[in-house]
UniProtKB/TrEMBL annotation, chains A, B:
Protein name (Swiss-Prot/TrEMBL): Glucosamine 6-phosphate N-acetyltransferase
Gene that produces this protein: TPHA0D00540
Family stated for the protein in its record: Belongs to the acetyltransferase family. GNA1 subfamily.
Transmembrane intervals: none
Its EC number(s): 2.3.1.4
GO terms for biological process, alphabetical: UDP-N-acetylglucosamine biosynthetic process
Catalytic activity: D-glucosamine 6-phosphate + acetyl-CoA = N-acetyl-D-glucosamine 6-phosphate + CoA + H(+)
The keyword Acyltransferase is annotated on this UniProt entry: yes
Pfam families: Acetyltransf_1
Annotated InterPro entries: Acyl_CoA_acyltransferase, GNAT_dom, GNPNAT1-like
Gene Ontology molecular function, alphabetical: aralkylamine N-acetyltransferase activity; glucosamine 6-phosphate N-acetyltransferase activity
PROSITE patterns: GNAT
Pathway where this protein functions: Nucleotide-sugar biosynthesis; UDP-N-acetyl-alpha-D-glucosamine biosynthesis; N-acetyl-alpha-D-glucosamine 1-phosphate from alpha-D-glucosamine 6-phosphate (route I): step 1/2
């Protein structure tokens, strides 16, 4: 997996406030989030380690939340963002499962294959952390995209919304 | 939501070692898990609090992992188990989403509506913690069961397995 020319990928940092929130607006409702609230969530994500994190090496390994940004090297803008959250199970010999969530590519950066690059990176981070599988939920219209990323259909997503 | 007569429900504890593992075997491969490994995972689950946990009251609130057991009051056996893991997002005003995982009912306790009771409880725990939605993935054959629990079809589950 090589980075598309002119772009790099790394864990999200506190200074990505504007870039991440504006990118997420391509995906769904974001609402009003203060800089300090954003920073507290990035800190929270960074604070939760996997149970066996000490056995692992490397600056990107050992985290439960793995929110990444693709950055345009030319101007420093956030072009895409996405998360893989690693779940500690009991089944499968206390196995780990990755959940990919909230993939979004900023409108001005669409059509550059950054979505596939992001999924490939998150998948690689999940497996490097020891996940035996990685799952995600998507609309039917996005199935072909995820198949190109190596994923296959596995089941039905069910949902219930809060009445509040 | 009332507990089926003769059964109670509570968070999983370290002493549920045999009961939880034998119940999970109704669901899938569990493998060999030592008592100390089980206990370390229950401790790990209990150690991770939600970002706003201090604002919440009550012994069941404020946890990221919420693994519950239904216990047969007559003999203390674990009859069913399941988990709801609460994800801290940025979207939807830094919203929370619950992920229901690893629902299993021990074979000898099937047909007593414990599955629905468990889902109702986990759903209620998710909403009490502030989740704006709760999701789960299931086989097509289980869609009707989850519809009875108030869930609706929302998308497609995609999966990739590790080569290891």
């Amino acid at each position: 997996m090589t980075s598309p020319e002119g772009f790099s990928i790394r864990r999200t940092r506190k200074e990505d406030y504007e870039g991440v929130l504006s990118t997420l607006k391509s995906l769904t409702t974001v609402g009003t989030i203060s800089r300090s609230h954003f920073e507290s969530i990035v800190s929270y994500w960074d604070s939760i380690r996997l149970l066996n994190a000490r056995k692992q090496e490397g600056g990107e390994l050992g985290y439960k939340y793995n929110n990444f940004v693709i950055v345009d090297d030319h101007n420093g803008q956030v072009a895409a963002t996405g998360n893989i959250i690693i779940e500690q199970k009991l089944i499968h010999e206390c196995g780990l499962v990755g959940h990919i969530e909230d993939i979004s590519v900023s409108e001005k950066y669409q059509g550059k294959k950054l979505g596939k690059f992001l999924i490939d990176k998150l998948t690689s981070v999940g497996f490097a952390n020891g996940c035996y599988k990685i799952i995600l939920d998507c609309d039917r219209k996005n199935v072909k995209f995820y198949e190109k990323c190596g994923y296959e259909e596995a089941g039905v997503e069910m949902r219930i919304r809060s009445n509040l």
